[in-house]
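Summary for the funding panel

The consortium committed to producing paired sequence-structure records for every protein in the target list. Below we show the first two records in order, beginning with the earlier of the two.
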Amino acid sequence: MMKNNNIRHIDKIYQATSQHWVGDAFLVQPLFSHMGEDRGTDPFLMLDYAAPRHFEASSSHIRGVGQHPHKGFETVTVAYQGEVAHKDSTGAGGIIAEGDVQWMTAGSGIIHEEYHSEAFSQAGGVLEMVQLWVNLPAKDKNAPAAYQHLSKDAIPVVNLENNTGYLRLIAGEYQGTQGAARTFTEMNVWDVVINANEQISLTVPATHNLSMVVLRGEATFNQQGSAGAGQLVVFQKTAGDVQIQAGDEALKILLLSGVPIDEPIVGYGPFVMNSREEIIDAINDFNSGRFGQIAH
């Protein structure tokens, strides 16, 4: 059967094969990682999905991840349900509430901590989050550490034609509307919501790698393959549209596309650099206190 040249076809669909706790606050399913198989996601390094999970109320213990360093990339935390409190060594901090996004540039080095917010801990409830690691090109790996708090109200929302759904533009651009985040390289990070039984068509530049994570519902892509909640769909790097059909419930997708940085990647725990020598330098910088400290 001949392929339609106007369609960007699926390359592969992945299912998370494991899950693990990050601290005692986030039970995550890794969908791709720079430390494992190359799934064609460059400039995105890693994605952990914390699927919806109910936490009991507690007035005596706040779950979280204590102080830890990062260097050489950016972390993006998308709060779909629940709340996370954050502090870092730049002096930034606050609450990542439902619908908010935290875009943190580790760059030359940062220390941060993440906990369930006090209010969420005391009330209990459902937590659902994505943490995404975004690579930095070699020339920017030592950029000053920085923090962007993207509140729900600050993230542009574009309604799709014929009331089929909407896009939340965390980063990138869609039909002339710019996303909320400042990025070092060209990329799109969109929340895509498609109403039940509706179909849409999306296009990103042919120069972008493209993948999508299904967060809710069942999606059929190009009448070719289907994916459900918690699955990663990676597309071929070609020009063309992706047709997305929602099933009998509303469909929610996290779309990730970007121009590949295409540089060597050497990862060691919380550090991602271009060479082993740079990893050693990062460890020495951290051990020497050059990442600063969190004020309490």
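The next record, for a separate protein in the list, is shown here:
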Amino acid sequence: MEFRKTDHYTVNGWDDVRFLISTNPGEPMKPLDSVASGGELSRIMLALKTVLAENDEIETLIFDEIDSGISGRTAQMVAEKMKLTSASHQVICITHLPQIASMADTHFLIEKTSDDSSTISRIRLLQREESIAELARMLGGVRITEAVMENAREMKKLADAVRPDSVSECNKVS
């Protein structure tokens, strides 16, 4: 973190504070807001929230679309870290990625409907097979084939197997 004194008093006091980061080995520290990609910001936020929760005894962590800017292997690593964090904290996560959604112990579906005068949001608890069907929809889009359903079942099976001692070495670092 970098702290500077402003030349005048503001609603935030005299201090101007910036987070600095080096996103690659050997690079100098630069302001987080100007160099971090959406995916890097997501991973940094996950790390900060996890560390703070462990030290401040925060009971519930809320991640609203922490998957912004990530996909594939990175999404899987973030999902595993969130799953491990959920062993000691309640984790509420809003996501559009099946890698992250598959890790949920409890899966809710939020649906919005609109007409000319209003928009209504509904939330409902999904049973296991409904959760798998929703994962398939996230994976396959409009046409859900048996191959997509099998992929969703496999994702859920692999997610169920994630335990603190089964996470990859690269995922153990916060």
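Regarding this second record: Helices lie at 32-35, 38-56, 72-85, 98-101, 128-140, 146-160. Residues 38-56 form the longest helix (19 residues).
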